[in-house]
Amino acid sequence: MDYYVVIPAHNEEAFIKLTLNSLVTQTLLPKKVIVVNDNSTDNTEAIINSFATEYPFIEKLNTTSTSEHMPGSKVINAFNKGFLLLDESYDFIVKLDADLILPENYFERIATIFREQENIGIAGGFVYEKDDNGAWKLNHPMDKNHVRGAFKAYTNSCFNAIGYLKCAMGWDTVDELLAKHHGFAIFTDSNLKVKHLRPTGKSYNKKAKLLQGKAMYTMRYGFFITAIASLKMALKQKKSQTFIDNMKGFFDAKKNKTPFIVSEKEGAFIRDYRIKNIKKKLF
Questions:
Q1: Quick one: which of 166, 216, 225, 256 is 20 to 30 A from 112 by CA?
Q2: Are 125 and 249 within one domain?
Q3: Do residues 41 and 11 make contact, with C-beta atoms less than 8 angstroms apart?
Q4: Considering only CA atoms, which of 13, 17, 66 is closest in space to residue 38?
Q5: How far is CA 188 from CA 14, 62, 113, 147, in A?
Q6: Which residue segment(s) compose the domain that 269 sits in?
Q7: In angstroms, rounded to a whole number, what is the distance separating the alpha carbons of residues 60 and 254?
Q8: In total, how many domains does the chain have?
Q9: Last residue of a domain, which of 196, 223, 242?
Q10: Confidence band (pLDDT; 50, 70, 90) for 203?
Q11: What's the whole-number mean pLDDT along residues 16-40?
């Protein structure tokens, strides 16, 4: 199977060489890799250039956006610019972070999953991060059937059906909800262990704390589902402030009439899906 990879990168000199090394040693190599150098001020561009010189399937795109590291909008804006350089001749496409080490058979396995189970639209492995003792431990705080945004692979048909990636916080939740809306399944493979070199959210701007609630508003969750989801997050993180921040973000978005990122029909499906899941866990 043919696949494309797009890697948004902002000041990733500490990690991107390891990520690209794990890409060029894959047992199934990508057809093309677009590395989007997004306003980096360190040695990131020079590292990308060295790989692009040696490997003809790697291409660099320079772009400029905000210097703030915000979840969602910045990274997907960079991804979308890279995606514009690609054609439709691919079986699956991958959004990949620049701070990962992939097992060498990662994409061969992803290709096999898509080839053998045609109903699957999104696939990926699991994140492992170093603990205080330097041991690699599973870090997957969400449902086990959720693919982390750091390494999401989409079939061509699924990617087109969901209307590509939304340039907003919550993009890696709404993509899976829309995939299910269009009849696609999500698959996670516990045998694919991806090393994440920077713990999630460590470099995010402080403004990001209100964006989760805003995302729930733009996905048309409504008050009830937002409150339940926020309470669940707060309990899991053992931080009551999470619930307060989420709800403030939700009401700020509502007050400001922030545009929705899904249609009314898609929103109705999302609410129904979320409510069914809540009932399953309660009863």
A1: 166
A2: no
A3: yes
A4: 66
A5: 28, 32, 10, 6
A6: 207-282
A7: 39
A8: 2
A9: 196
A10: very low
A11: 97
